[in-house]
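User: For my dataset I need records formatted as: sequence, then structure tokens, nothing else. Please produce one.
Assistant:
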Amino acid sequence: MDFFSFGLNGIYLFFLFLSFYLGRKSSLVKTQKTPDNLISLNTIEGRKILLESKLNQDYLLLSCHHIAQKNPTFCGIGSIVMALNSFSNLDRELPQVGICLAFTQDNIFNKQVNQIKSSLKITLTGITLEELKQIVQVYQIQARVVFSSEIEIDEFRNLIVDYLGQSNSFVIVNFWRKTIGQKGFAHVSPIAAYNYEEDRFLILDVARNKYPPFWVKTQELWKATATKDLASMKSRGLLLLRYKHH
């Protein structure tokens, strides 16, 4: 083995070990305090906002499939797994898990998905919105990526509200945690509801061991999604999902 090959293998093994270590460590992370600008769903106020929300049908569906991401870079995969399991009358044979039919963060990786990006590569390097879009399209889901730097706040709000108001439609959001006062960096999770009076969206955080579901103001969420993703060299934004039964 020449020095160059050894160097590449050494780097690969280092990142493999690092991802394993972070995955183990993340399972021990304590729940963080919700910043004052956000409202936890676990509070009386948070539940009141949900009950008074006129756009909460996605919460009723997604909450039944609310999972925790399996490692620090699987927030995108965890989010689309939740959405896939929440679509009604999905026009394909679902993978079997025990006696149930459901997608998991493991069986979603069929041959076609692995050609887009494998589980190992996502564990090591993460995943972009465009790659998530390609993965859900494997399962006959109509998908659209919207980069927040290309739209104003009113269009941002209206797009999400439109999808939340339709059946068999879901919204995945990619945002920068620090912009909304949370600890951490880039993150992906589904949006589950909207309250007009509060002008807040409900995020069903897939890092369940870190933050409970929370309500965030539209202005803050839009700013958090307009930040730059260095992997794609574009801004963060929205993944809009829709399924029409054939």
